[in-house]
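Q: My labmate handed me this sequence with no annotations at all. I'd like to see what the chain might look like in three dimensions before we decide whether it's worth expressing. Could you predict it?
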Amino acid sequence: MLTHDIGLFWLMGWVLTFWLVYFQYYWFPQLQPQSFLLRVGLLAAAYSTVNTLVMLSQQEWLALLPAVGLIGYELVRMPRRYRRYISLFLDVTILVYLTIETLHAASVSLVVWLTSKAFTTGLRGVVTVLVIDSVLFTVLSLGLWLTRAPMENLFQGILGRFSQYLLLGLMIGLLLVFLGLETVLQLAQEPTGNILLLAVLMGFLIIGVAISLYLVMQTHLQREHLAAQRYDQEFQEQYTTELEGQMAEVRKFRHDYQNMLLGLGGYLADRDYANFRQLYINIRSGWTTSNAADLTIEDLENVPKIGVRYIIYHDYLIARKAGVQLYVVIPQPINETLDLLRQLGEIVRRTLEPVIPLVAQGQPKVITLELETTREAIDYRLTFPVCEDTQILAHYRLRAPKWQLDLSNLDQGLTLKMTVRLSVKRTWGQVAVHISRN
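A: Here is what I predict for the chain of 438 residues:
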């Protein structure tokens, strides 16, 4: 304990806990509550108050109560759909705790080395240490900014796999090593002088963990890059096949049209209208409606390759085979994390595929798919024709005399913060999904 002053002890606990909770949610933006910084400050104040009371009680068996209470409260408050992140959340918590303790120990050692132990344990010394801590933590948060998207993708990649629990075991082992070193140094003759040694040892351990995480992240990104290339190749192959089919139909039509024109002169000269009509019937009977896509690469230029483009194009071909025209309106490029794109692709698939056969039964056979993105949210809308007496039965269900649309599984397994709205206006129905970025 750096100081025995109650006020300074509470202040130090509040500052360190504030940064601890802040970094806990750094790679989990979907878990951040509204008024995040205010919530973090209040949670840090509650923890520091309980920790101060435990210190005053001088009951050693209560030493872990504040930490257990803090983690328990956070896990209980975690929404049910995010419970699968618990082990990863604990991994980050341990890593953040060790990093904060190491940097704090380095700050204390620096102030003691530059001044004295008496100055460091006083008001000005504690404030100096906390200022250095805050500067280091701020620089760390800025330096880690570019790792947010890769880490989010990494977490999504190891969810439900053995590596998820292997990482948790590694972090627990690292925590036990740290606590053991801390206990040994506290029992030494000059614990204050050994703070620097503790910081150096833990610094090496954390650097090793950081390098390991970096290598795992790079491996994961390489795997995702290969998956993106595979999706793109499948899309290009399917598009090329459809385009070749379309060109074959065009060439056949051109050949038949030329035959009709060449034969027209002779038939007109002989006034043989019956044989000309028979020629037209013979040629026309060989024509078939092409399922080749009218959708071009340029139409899908703003659609991400991973998770969305292939699904839209695949469902577009299904719609064409069912005689349904699908119009895609995406005015702005969509650049999101791989996890969000995968879930967005699932939303498109789960809404579009059930609607296509329903629209094919009526008139007009038209579906409009819209995707718009802003700084705050992504809006997805699917508009399609319905009967005038179509009713909204529940939040996810539409019922017409000849069909029923059930989208109750739309958000199953998805972790996005989204709201779904079904609406009917005369002869048009719409599924609107609002996906919040915060």
